[in-house]
Amino acid sequence: SQTIHQWPATLVQPVGSPLSLECTVEGTSNPNLYWYRQAAGRGLQLLFYSVGIGQISSEVPQNLSASRPQDRQFILSSKKLLLSDSGFYLCAWSLGGSTDTQYFGPGTRLTVL
Amino acid sequence: GENVEQHPSTLSVQEGDSAVIKCTYSDSASNYFPWYKQELGKRPQLIIDIRSNVGEKKDQRIAVTLNKTAKHFSLHITETQPEDSAVYFCAAFLNKLVFGAGTILRVKS
User: Fold this and answer.
1) Which of A25, B41, B82, B90 could cross-link to B100 by cystine, CB 3.0-4.6 Å?
2) What is the spatial distance between Cα B34 and Cα B95, in angstroms, rounded to a whole number?
């Protein structure tokens, strides 16, 4: 069966510091991968998605970037964090196709101070 | 692109009562409609989904109905229990999954 991991689980970072969040999927090949952000009490904002290695689509222009160095690894990065980057970051995977059931990872709670 | 509206934003029900959450979508070509439940501090989890060739689907106390003509779909929870308290998200898929803003469901015991 498929499993999705995210780390770290929680992170507290100062404004202006860099960021690297990692997501890995087990038990499937060539998944679609997604990064979402959820501000406190808010909905799911799609940040990036990837349909394959090195293929990244950005949904929201901002100071974040994403990379997919391996088939089942998805990384979210920032060179300089802003206060507004605080939130709950969720990675998700899907098999794609005509329907797109997405399964979410456990999330990383980021607080920027 | 697709747009999904979800109502109500908050819903309080007495334990044992039914709860209904409604979503509308804009693009008639959307063909897949999942519902997710997110408990406080946890990940959204798929609870039920429906495809555009089906009008209704049930799984124990939860059901989803789809009206393609009106472009809306609804989540029905019967005999609500305190553990049903959570945020519920609907979504519609065309070329990508578009989520509604969420409904906070509170079940009062």
Assistant:
1) B90
2) 14
Kindly determine whether residue A49 and residue B101, on different chains, have CB atoms separated by under 8 Å: no
Transcribe A62-103 into DSSP letters.
SSEEEEEEETTEEEEEESS--GGG-EEEEEEEE--SSS---E
Which residue of chain B is at minimal alpha-carbon distance from A49? B96
Please report how many Cα atoms fall inside a 13 Å half-sphere around the Cα of residue A112, on the Cβ side.
17
Q: What is the pLDDT of residue B109?
A: 93
CB contact under 8 A, A103 and B46: yes
Chain segment B59-109, per-residue pLDDT in tens? 999 999 999 999 999 999 999 999 999 999 999 998 888 999 999 999 999
- Please say if the pLDDT value at position A61 is more than 70: no
Query: Looking at beta carbons, which residues of chain A come within 8 Å of B100?
Result: 43
Rounded mean pLDDT of B14-32? 96
Residue window 68-107, chain A: list those with CB within 8 Å of chain B.
90, 94, 98-107
Across the interface, which of A44, A94, A105 has its CB nearest the CB of B89? Answer: A44
CB B61 within 8 A of CB B78: yes
Between CA A47 and CA A92 the distance in angstroms is 11
- C-alpha dihedral sign at B41, B103, A105, A112: negative
